[in-house]
Amino acid sequence: MLAGVSDIAIHIPKYYLPHEELAKARGVPKEKFHTGLGNRNMAIIPNWEDAVTMGANAAVQLLERNNINPDEVRQLVVSTESGVDHSKPVASFVQGLLNIGTRCRVYEIKHACYGGTAGLIDSIEWISRHNNSEPKGIVIMTDIAKYGFGTLGEPTQGAGALALLVEAKPRLFSLDTMLNGIYSKDVHDFWRPTGHRVPIVDGKYSINCYLTALEGAVSHFRENSGIKEGELLDNLDYLIYHMPFTNMARKAHRHLVEIENKGALPERIEEIFEESFERMVVPSLRGVQEVGNIYTGSVYMGLASLLESEREKVEKKKVGLFSYGSGCGAEFFQCEIKSGISSIVDAIGMNEQLENRKKLTFEQYVQFYSKSDQEILYHPEELTGYKDKFTRFVFTGFQGHKRQYA
Asked: Which of 60, 161, 237, 272 could pair with 54 in a Cys bridge, judged by C-beta atoms 3.0 to 4.6 Å apart?
């Protein structure tokens, strides 16, 4: 029996800025964002949220929906590049908020946007080795993609978190990690030096690194799976790509179609691309279109979108996922979706969270993102109507140098 994931939960911040508003303020046509990036809105976190609260707000849903005693959790992994401390892991903060017991392996992973996949694969393999018991693991991906005002990266901002419940007898999907295709290389396409609040990005180079990593990871996956070149698309039902912006999925899929159909005429490649993109990729796009880049959780927001959009159609299907993290590390792997997942999909609540958000003006967005953590003042009255079944924990400021949560 292959280990895998039994449930998935998401947390989407309650505020967003439409790209149309950003385009108007920056004096550019909205098509530059809508058509060029493929995005519509981007999540904006309020002062009382951070990587800790978003991760805990996603994970608590898993505990409650599955009637899990926190002491049953034996591995808690948080993947993020939005850490709140240089030493103390976000996972420890989350452990405290969720009241998870002391007999639990707790740690944080940083590897740009690939960290979530690293945590998931490690947790699946760890649980697979404990076949005489039924340990439970929780893997959290939580991030805030924030760039400088007026920079090229500004419209690719976003925030959000996902949590996955890992078990030996999964109810959502199983995953054979022996088949995974891996690619890594030391590159400088995206980095954030110590002390910098926002990252440094070499955009065109990063896209080239992404596509090179895709080709390398897919080649390795084919070798491990015994799939011949040109047959990959026939062996999968859906494809989900890491998406720093929505149209990155188009670029990635076109590249995959090209390497899978070497020697084909351009018009034939275009035909294959259009048909397969609409059928295999489009169902995974809505989350990133609405929320923006969430770094470690991007590809898994695509998975949640696929489940929400296709629902029972995805049962018993094979889903290929490509996870990429700058620096760089990448992995291509295959999930096999289980039958009878309707109750799991119903509980995700993506549409409900998106519909209940509040739209910010451009001026409000600037006010939100101009403050540092140390400048945040906590006003309980601001939280009136903010808490709901998807939001339990908030950041309340500092006591000395210690972050406080409620």
From this structure: 161
**Which one of the listed residues 11, 19, 220, 242 is annotated catalytic?**
242
Using alpha carbons only, give the angle 203, 207, 212 rounded to the nearest 5 degrees. Answer: 145
Q: Which of 49, 81, 108, 331 is catalytic?
A: 81
The answer to whether 81 is a known catalytic residue is: yes
Catalytic residue among 113, 209, 328, 335: 113
The answer to whether 77 touches 107, Cβ cutoff 8 Å, is yes
pLDDT tens for each residue of the chain, 406 residues long = 589 999 999 999 999 999 999 999 999 999 999 999 999 999 999 888 999 999 999 999 999 999 999 999 999 999 999 999 999 999 999 999 999 999 999 999 999 999 999 999 999 999 988 766 778 999 999 999 999 999 999 999 999 999 999 999 999 999 999 999 999 999 999 988 888 888 888 889 999 999 999 999 999 999 999 999 999 999 999 999 999 999 999 999 999 999 999 999 999 999 999 999 999 999 999 999 999 999 999 999 999 999 999 999 999 999 999 999 999 999 999 999 999 999 999 999 999 999 999 999 999 999 888 866 555 555 555 666 666 789 999 998 888 889 999 8
CATH number of 4-405: 3.40.47.10
Please say if 328 is a catalytic residue. no
| Domain spans of the chain, in order of start | 4-405
Residue 385: burial class (beta carbons within 10 Å; 0-12, 13-18, 19+): exposed
Active site includes 242?
Answer: yes
